[in-house]
Design goal:
The chain has 395 residues and is α+β, with helices and mostly antiparallel strands. A hairpin with a 5-residue loop joins strand 10 and strand 11. It folds into three domains: 140 residues, Reverse transcriptase/Diguanylate cyclase domain (Alpha-Beta Plaits, 2-Layer Sandwich), CATH 3.30.70.270; 55 residues, 5' to 3' exonuclease, C-terminal subdomain (DNA polymerase, domain 1); 134 residues, DNA polymerase, Y-family, little finger domain (Dna Ligase, domain 1), CATH 3.30.1490.100.
């Protein structure tokens, strides 16, 4: 194994969980392994593919594809509904292992994150392989890892590793780009692999004869600025493998929210209230996990004609308890929605975030009793999973 000298350079590790939703479903049902299946909504209910197994990908099935089309491409495709809540739980376990490496962890989605490992003395490739093995062995999840001197190249390294791996199983790849080799590594790769380049930009570049990242890097920056304005200068830098952005482990979170789109429009008041309660519980749980509370509760609604509206109310004291959030959201719903009016999407959010207040004199004994009950429920969920206990459905 070749050892690369990252000394005196930034060292950024990027981890991406391979077909994450599918991997979690295989943990629930090992019989799915090796079979073509997709996680997502039903084909007759506006469903799309959230994730698909590598066996399904051989038939051309891809994420974000309508499930009806996926079934046409792969008639034997198994359609698996989401195990709601479990993905977040497994993601948190992965992120905990990244935090064991370094306090500088930037999670960019439920299944991928950057870690700044510049202060570690071990060989980065060894660090990457040990991390991968830990995620594989302890959690049963396949993952691919890229390592480079910056976030841009590390992420592309992960994608490049995935593309060169076997197509019928999770790639579980590790790709290391040594310092000074960024431009050479990027040179032959297609423009679509450059972070931030979408299909329209790639098509426009192809019209100028530019097909690879190296083609872009060799083009005079003035040409790129003429074609893309100020974005052209940034495109030239990124094509050369230049990225100075830091790994940010604390985002200025402005709100915490959760929403759901119904597969069929919902009119029943009790069903909507029950959904609102579940969403409020998810928001409350996330607030308490982060140690924050908010002074503004809002709801989001979308009618069948796709008209979307939000309503919010500011509170005298910050809240992080499920029942307080739910009661406020339900009151907002009652003010804006006529009884029996159909709803396509409903969401709950809390903003105005800050430290929670815990003084008994502010909330009263009954609210303090509810808070202690909520703390107990949180501990049960942390130990046995999100699905281990739920409040009753009655609003």
């Amino acid at each position: 194994m070749k050892v690369y000298n990252f000394h005196m350079n930034r060292t950024i590790l990027h981890l991406d969980l391979d077909a994450f939703f599918c991997a979690v479903e295989e943990l629930h049902d090992p019989a799915l392994r090796g079979k073509p299946f997709a996680v997502g909504g039903r084909p007759d209910e506006r469903g799309v593919v959230a994730s698909c197994s590598y066996a399904a990908r051989r038939f051309g099935v891809r994420s974000a594809m309508p499930m009806s089309r996926a079934l046409r491409l792969c008639p034997g495709l198994l359609v698996i509904s989401h195990h709601r809540g479990n993905y977040g739980e497994m993601s948190e376990k992965v992120m905990q292992r990244l935090c064991d490496l370094s306090p500088l962890v930037e999670q960019i989605s439920i299944d991928e994150a950057f870690v700044d490992i510049s202060d570690l003395h071990e060989d980065p490739q060894t660090v990457a392989r040990l991390l991968q093995k830990r995620v594989n062995d302890e959690l049963g999840l396949p993952c691919s890892v890229g390592v480079a001197s910056n976030k841009l190249v590390a992420k592309i390294a992960t994608e490049a590793g995935k593309k060169t791996a076997q197509k019928d199983s999770p790639p579980n790849a590790v790709t290391v780009v040594p310092p000074g080799a960024e431009a050479a590594f990027l040179d032959p790769l297609p423009m679509e692999m450059l972070w931030g380049v979408g299909p329209k930009t790639a098509a426009k570049l192809a019209g100028y004869g530019i097909k690879t990242i190296g083609d872009t890097a060799r083009r005079p920056p003035a040409d790129l600025r003429r074609w893309f304005g100020e974005n052209g200068a940034d495109l030239a830098r990124r094509a050369g493998g230049v990225d100075d952005s830091p790994v940010v482990n604390e985002h200025a979170v402005k709100s915490v929210s959760q929403e759901t789109t119904f597969v069929r429009d919902v009119r029943d008041d009790k069903d909507l209230a029950a959904t609102l309660r579940e969403l409020s519980a998810e928001v409350g749980h996330r607030l308490r996990q982060a140690g924050i509370a908010g002074t503004t509760v809002r709801i989001k609604l979308r009618w069948p004609d796709f008209t979307t509206l939000t309503r919010q109310v500011s509170l005298a004291q910050p809240v992080d308890q499920d029942e307080q959030i739910y009661a406020t959201a339900l009151n907002l719903l009652g003010k804006v929605r006529a009884k029996g009016q159909a709803v396509r999407l409903i969401g709950v959010g809390v903003s105005g975030l800050g430290a929670p207040l815990r003084q008994m004199e502010l909330w009263g004994a009954q609210t303090e009793k509810s808070r202690k009950l909520q703390d107990t429920l949180d501990k049960i969920k942390e130990k046995f999973g999100d699905e281990s206990i739920r409040r009753g459905k009655n609003p």
